[in-house]
From TrEMBL:
Pfam families from the UniProt entry: PgaD
Protein's name according to its UniProt entry: Hemin storage protein
GO biological process, one term: cell adhesion involved in single-species biofilm formation
Biological classification of the source: Bacteria, Pseudomonadati, Pseudomonadota, Gammaproteobacteria, Lysobacterales
Protein species of origin: Stenotrophomonas terrae
Domain of life: Bacteria
Protein's UniProt keywords contain Transmembrane: yes
Amino acid sequence: MNEKHSLDANHDNHRFDSRLIRKPQQQPRLQRGLWGMVNVAFWVLMLYLLLPLLTLLLWLLGIRVAWQQLYEYQDHVDPFLLLAAPVILACCALSLIAWAEYNRMRFSGKERRAPVPVISQAQIAADLGAGPEVSQAIGQTRSVVLHMDDQARPASLSAGPLPPR
């Protein structure tokens, strides 16, 4: 029985590795910065090693051809592109203006917010779990600080300063 207990204790010691950092804030800033740079360097190395896979994927999707058409043939000017770009720009601007004017006509002169229903002081007191004097004091001031009891119910309050208008 003692051997089993000592084996379990030994197993627990192997499970808890004191070399693991539990609170990195207590580590020196220089050491944290150096390990951060090592981490970034290894991420860059991993991404560098994945570049051939990324190149294959882009080649399969035809991105290389699109890159050549857009950026490598610099001396070639497509006349369709010269005519189509301003037309597309004008259509986008007109559709945005039309949508804004439609919404302005649709919502102008209409109150979209529903009025807030009036709540009685008794309902406020019941919802807060407070006495009627607390709810009455809340209704008379614009800014209050509630003092709570141990059951998180308002026990008293102190009036705060009125905000400037």
